[in-house]
Design goal:
single chain; about 280 residues; alpha/beta; two-stranded antiparallel sheet; 10 strands; about 40% helix; globular
Length: about 280
């Protein structure tokens, strides 16, 4: 099992390039960053975690800019979005950003995606909450067409464009792995239908092993080899028993959370995580 770390990258936290170098030096496989383009001041949608929305949610850096800095500071560390809210991104522009980052990182990008929870945030981007997953599917399929075809076109309910030329193409073929976040049966089916990995949250620990069994059954029914589907636990609990359970179950990677704090707080915790995974 591989081990990664995640952080809400902010202007007041440890610099992302310094964190990337430190994670690579300590043997971590990957670094993931979160995304919110903004947080509406209305706060109409309640925070799923309960209580008040943490400060870092409204302070995240652009994930593609942050991960480009992380990739430039390292040689082997994989860099990933955890998650990119593609329902808030134009698919043509996002396909370009993904391909560019994959090229500049020499094929080290992991594309974690999701549908999001903040209704008014996505409404500001013209996305309706009720249809966000239909939109997500079409944007994924449209980006796949752009990454894999010389002249790509797509005609759907939400995404529609005639043949276009768009380069660069990703280094990874046919494209960087697409990891879908969530724990529902609908999520698992979408993973089987059009994604490359499942990206469950560690706080939903009770759903992970049953979900893995469900995912295997769905893949078998669809004729999909589980060797083509990774499972990455996002925000895994940092204790030996939990990590051993995940490793024994065949989980691909466990991603441990770091706080959005300065280096003085983050680096000692990163050292503790490093001892745990060794």
């Amino acid at each position: 099992m591989h081990y990664g770390v995640l952080i809400f990258p902010t202007e007041y936290a440890i610099r992302i390039d310094e964190l990337a170098r430190a994670a690579e030096e300590r043997g971590f496989e990957s670094l993931f960053v979160t995304e919110h383009t903004h947080i509406p001041a209305s706060r109409r949608t309640p925070f799923p975690g309960g209580a008040e929305l943490p400060k870092e949610y409204s302070h995240t850096l652009d994930p593609f800019v942050a991960l480009t800095a992380a990739a430039a500071a390292t040689r082997t560390l994989k860099v990933g979005t955890g998650i990119c809210l593609i329902i808030e991104h134009d698919p043509i522009m996002t396909a370009k950003s993904v391909a560019s980052l994959d090229l500049l990182s020499n094929g080290r990008f992991l594309f974690g995606i999701g549908g999001g929870w903040n209704a008014e945030e996505m409404e500001n981007h013209g996305t309706a909450f009720k249809t966000r997953f239909r939109l997500l599917r079409e944007r994924v399929l449209a980006m796949k067409a752009i990454w894999t075809r010389e002249a790509a076109e797509f005609h759907g309910e939400f995404v529609n464009f005639d043949p276009i030329w768009s380069s660069p193409k990703p280094v990874q073929k046919p494209h960087p792995p697409i990891l879908l976040g969530g724990e529902s049966g609908h999520t698992l089916q979408r993973v089987v239908d059009f994604c490359d990995g499942w990206f469950p949250r560690g706080r939903a620990a009770d759903a992970i092993l049953p979900g893995l069994a469900d995912l295997k059954a769905r893949a078998a029914r669809a004729g999909r080899d589980m060797k083509t589907i990774s499972v990455s636990v996002f925000g895994a609990k940092a204790d030996e028993a939990t990590l051993a359970t995940y490793a024994g179950a065949g989980i691909t990677r466990a991603i441990l959370r770091l706080p959005s704090e300065p280096r003085e707080a983050v680096l000692p915790l990163l050292d503790r995580h490093a001892k745990l995974i060794q």
